[in-house]
Request: fold
Amino acid sequence: MSASSIFFESEKELIKQVIADAEKNTSGEIRVHIDNFCLGNPVRKAIRVFKRLKMYETAERNAVLIYVSIKNHKLAIVGDVGIDEKVPEGFWDDEKNLMINYFKEGNYTKGLEEGIRLVGEQLKLYFPAQEADKNELSDDISFGN
Reply:
């Protein structure tokens, strides 16, 4: 089973819309990446995916990646340097814990939906939307192994 097959097309579209809605209130960018497997540290893997997706190419360096490894039950949220300079260590823990609770029930869509909303709210505090904002990164979910 591939990572993309855990979601129906309608769920993928819902997640994409939740990302777009969350980004309306912030200049920050949010992406979601789903893998089947993550052997090792999920934060390191998320950083590699972040770089591969070129998420560092935002004007304010304020992109956030939500990384999920389905079969290994791993989750990481990583932000670019613009965010990391402004927030304390462990900043994304509440968002991760909320998502984990949904994931434990097998509800990945709802977990991502709620997590993305919370990430958007946090981004809004530090990077409120500006009049000239544009969507700098795709809102599509990316899938790996």
